[in-house]
Write a structure and sequence with these properties.
By secondary structure, the chain is α+β, with helices and mostly antiparallel strands. 31% of the residues lie in helices and 28% in strands. The chain folds into three domains: 227 residues, Nucleotidyltransferase, domain 5, CATH 3.30.420; 53 residues; 88 residues, General secretion pathway protein M, EpsM (Gyrase A, domain 2).
């Protein structure tokens, strides 16, 4: 989704210019100049304030290989060697994102930054970022020097950046200006080899904005909701944590689904086996419970249970070979297995008995029988032969 950016440039003279662009660089409104009164600003995603102030200093500093969060905490004491003044009165920050072995560090007096924010509040502006103008210059950027209205913002290869009067530029940077890439606004003094531009603000608003730029709104000056150290690392960590939680929840749900499916398949297999033994008309409340109950009646003896199972294994193939034979139940005691079988007629029941008697290891006898129409419900007793 396209974002709208409002750019403001606070010049060394205190003049505030503004314009509005989209992310593609198209100019939507402006440029204009704020007269100091309360302004009605357009609806934007970010408001970026570029500050060109002679009291704002930037220096290149070496980054430690580890412990960079602690390094940030000690930045004010690092700046003690660069400027004169009480550390407690200085605001010292590095870019939100630290990369490489070196980085720019910005130093400004807190009272100067407080005055800038009061000036912005007077025109109804709440900035998203306040970036030193020199942060857009130097090695790796499009230019080294930006001259406008008699002042020069610069970032030298020696590791010094800031704002000074244009006439003092060669002395401040400590090198020949001709060796630097210089941009000169239309109303500024001309330098040999300098590239003319229409205005400083128009040029700045075309430059990329990311976390590698120094943002002064950190620490005590950070907007509500933004990480006080900078970079929003805790927000990214929270997003990663939430993503991990969602993935874990999804994996658990998938595991529960697979377990439920396996349980359903096992229940279907168990029911099929139950029907083979007890027939299609037997009411199946809980097959596992029914089977456990039937074997519980065999008593605690492991030998008795093993014998009952052996006899049932011999009977089961004869019952399953004829779908019209239904096992109504069985009882085992004193070495004898008694099975109750429903047959469609007496001939079929007698045929089952004769098949059982073919096993020479068994003694088979008929127990009680009853008739329901043509159907026969008979009991057959089976035991091992002597």
């Amino acid at each position: 989704m396209s974002q709208t950016l409002l750019w403001l440039r606070v010049a060394p003279t205190g003049v505030v210019e503004w314009l509005c662009r989209d992310r593609q660089g198209h100019l939507l409104s402006g440029p204009g100049v704020c007269g100091g009164e309360l302004m009605t600003w357009p609806q934007v995603n970010q408001a970026i304030v570029v500050w060109a102030d002679e009291s704002l200093l930037m220096r290149r500093a070496q980054l430690p290989s580890s412990g960079r969060s602690k390094w940030r905490t000690g930045l004010p004491y690092l700046a003690e060697d660069w400027v004169a003044g009480d550390v407690g009165e200085l605001h010292v920050v590095a870019p939100p994102r630290l990369a490489g072995t070196e980085t720019w560090v910005a130093v400004v007096e807190r009272r100067r930054l407080d005055a800038l924010q009061a000036q912005l509040r007077a025109i109804g502006m709440v900035p998203t970022k306040i970036v030193p103008e020199a942060a857009f210059l130097g090695p790796g950027r499009a230019a080294d020097v930006l001259i406008s209205e008699g002042h020069a913002s610069f970032a030298s290869t020696a590791g010094l950046a800031g704002v000074c009067e244009a006439d003092l530029l060669p002395m401040v940077v400590g090198q020949d200006v001709e060796s630097l890439r210089v941009l000169v606004a239309a109303s500024a003094e001309t330098y040999d080899g300098a590239q003319p531009i229409e205005s400083a603000l128009l040029w700045l608003s075309r430059q990329p904005v990311d976390d590698s730029l120094v943002d002064l709104l950190q620490g005590a000056y950070a907007p509500v909701g933004r990480d006080q150290v900078g970079g929003g690392w805790w927000q990214r960590a929270l997003i990663v944590l939430l993503c991990a939680l969602l993935v874990h929840t999804f994996s658990l749900a998938l595991e529960v689904y697979q377990l439920k499916r396996n349980e359903t398949q096992l229940a279907e297999q168990l029911e099929a086996q139950f029907r083979q033994v007890f027939g299609p008309d037997e009411r199946m409340v809980d097959p596992a419970f029914q089977i456990r109950s039937a074997f519980a009646r065999l008593g605690p003896s492991g030998t008795a249970r093993a014998e009952a199972l052996a006899l049932l294994k011999g009977v089961a193939p004869l019952l399953t070979s004829d779908s019209r034979l239904v096992l109504q139940g069985f009882v085992y005691g004193d070495g004898t297995l008694e099975v109750a079988v429903r047959a469609p007629d007496a001939t079929r029941f007698e045929g089952l008995r004769e098949q059982l008697m073919l096993n020479r290891e068994w003694q088979v006898e008929i127990g009680s029988t009853s008739y329901e129409g043509q159907e026969v419900i008979g009991r057959i007793r089976i035991r091992r032969g002597a």
